[in-house]
Specification:
about 270 residues, alpha+beta, Metallo-beta-lactamase, Chain A, seven-stranded mixed β-sheet, six-stranded mixed β-sheet, 6 helices, about 20% helix
């Protein structure tokens, strides 16, 4: 029995004797199948062909990403906190080197993930560190490998300890979530967004989409919902889901001007 990983989205599935016939994540209209069709890989094969890069992002924040790029290429973020470190979002590859480095940085107390495209090998990570995985209950149907470490939270916010708050924004998925880190950016506050709010390449704006690869926009009501969800939180900096997708300053203002631009584009006659 093998816990196969989809090569396109990077999500690991429950154990089967042979690769699954379908990836439900990729067959959803927010994702896609490669032209060559559905392909799978084992964790051992991934460990043999790839390695993880560990990079400091700012004091108390470390990025973990896979090289060469795998699946959709995101990187996870380790938030170091006095009440326990949190792994924000996840990647498919976990290996002995990555485990050792995370332990040297204080280990993990929890994993929290923005949305199903980043569920990846979350169960492998949680079992190694014996920590809970916090997912919003609205996205329960997209869990492809169940485990007792998974804890579904409900409502609009959930505290992970002093200064760390999960905020449900919706939009991309019903349970799409961001993590507010109050102590980040030297106390100015940081918002870790995955692609719930996608930091775009010019790094001055974010965008909001139902599907990024298939270019399906969100309606105005969803944008207003996202803005309302994050309004109570102050943040200077925004970290998206990929290396270098960072808005360094005036993050809250950047979100507002991004929303204004987006809403004007979809509502102009």
């Amino acid at each position: 029995m093998e816990y196969y990983i989809c090569k396109t989205c990077g999500v690991q599935y429950h154990a089967t004797d042979a690769p699954p016939a379908h990836c439900l994540i990729c067959e959803d209209e927010r994702q896609y199948l490669r032209p060559e069709g559905q392909q799978w890989i084992s964790l051992k094969e991934l460990q043999d062909s790839h390695h993880n890069l560990i990079r400091s992002q700012e004091p108390g924040l470390t990025g973990i990403g896979t090289s060469p790029s795998f699946a959709i290429g995101q990187r996870a973020l380790l938030v170091q906190n006095t009440h326990g470190n949190v792994l924000w979002d996840c990647i498919s590859l976990i290996d002995e080197s990555s485990i050792a480095i995370v332990k040297s940085l204080g280990g993990l107390s929890a994993i929290a993930i923005s949305h199903p495209h980043f569920y990846d090998s979350m169960v492998e990570w949680s079992q190694v560190f014996d920590v809970p995985i916090y997912l919003h209950s609205d996205d329960r149907q997209w869990v492809m490998r169940s485990d007792l470490h998974i804890q579904f939270w409900q409502g609009e916010t959930h505290s992970l300890g002093k200064g760390l708050t999960l905020v449900r924004c919706g939009g991309h998925f019903d349970g799409s979530t961001v993590l507010h880190w109050a102590a980040g950016a030297g106390g100015g506050g940081v918002l870790l967004t995955g692609d719930t709010l996608q930091v775009v390449p010019d790094r001055r704006y974010v965008s909001f989409m139902y599907s990024y690869p298939n270019l399906i926009p969100l309606p105005a009501a969803k944008i207003h919902g996202i803005l309302a969800a994050i309004e109570p939180f102050e943040f200077e900096r925004i970290y998206g889901g990929w290396w270098d997708r960072v808005i360094q300053q005036d993050g809250k203002l950047a979100v507002q001007r991004s929303a204004d631009r987006y809403l004007a584009a979809i509502t102009s006659p």
